[in-house]
Each structure stands twice: as structure tokens, then as C-alpha cells.
Amino acid sequence: MSKQEKRERALKQISEILRRTISSLGLEEGVREEEVRRAWEKSMPAVWRANVRFLSFKGGVVRVSCSSSTWAQELRINRKELIPRVNAALGEDAVQDLKAAGLTKGK
């Protein structure tokens, strides 16, 4: 077995241990939400990140808070373009919809 093959085998074993540990602790949903939040931050232009804040992810739906009703409307208008951006950053088609859950407080 080559050095590369040994390394790949070890990484697969570590990955499996982590997956089982996360599952046994009931952390899958929280880990998944964090993965989607990071994909959101990575894929959105700065102006979007400043005005539309990630709140949660559940059941394929990203819930966000918007700085104004205008941004909530922009989200509704542009969601068919935004969803593929987030999914591309995530590396899979996990996000099915975007919903504005309210306006950001303090803006």
C-alpha cells in the first residue's frame, strides 16, 4: 500500500468517526445549518450580506432577516438566481427556497 493510499484510508476512517460522533450527539442539524450559513456568506455579494442576514436553515429553506421591506422584495424577486449561488458554494442542492422572516432590528 502506497503512502497516498494509507493517508486516504486514514482520512476516511477519521471522517467516519466524526460522522458517527456528530450523529450520536444529535448535532447533525446544527452542523448542517452552519455549513449552509457559511455557503450563504461565501456566495453573497457584500451588499446582500449587509442587508440580508442569514437566520436559519431547516427543511431546505434558508430563513433570513432583511434590513428593509425593499430588500425583502429583492429577495423574493432574485431567489431563483440566489439559490443556485448558495448551492454552488455548498457543493450540493440542499437549499430549495429562501424566505424573509422579518426585518433586521436596529437598522
Tell the overall outline: elongated
Q: Total helix count?
A: 4
Physical arrangement of strands within the biggest beta sheet: 1-2-3
Succession of helices and strands: HHHEEHE
Largest sheet: 3 strands, mixed
- The CATH homologous superfamily of the domain at 31-103 is termed DnaA, N-terminal domain
Structural class: alpha+beta
The CATH class of the domain at 31-103 turns out to be Alpha Beta
Mean pLDDT: 86
Explain the overall architecture:
There is one protein chain. The chain has 107 residues and is of the alpha+beta class. The chain has a domain at 31-103: 2-Layer Sandwich (GMP Synthetase, Chain A, domain 3), CATH 3.30.300. Helices cover 62% and strands 19% of the residues. It has four helices and three strands; from the N terminus they run H-H-H-E-E-H-E. It has helices spanning 3-24, 28-43, 46-51, 69-90; strands at residues 52-58, 61-66, 97-103. The protein has a three-stranded mixed sheet with strand order 1-2-3. Helix 4 links the parallel strand 2 and strand 3 (97-103). The model has no long low-confidence stretch (mean pLDDT 86).
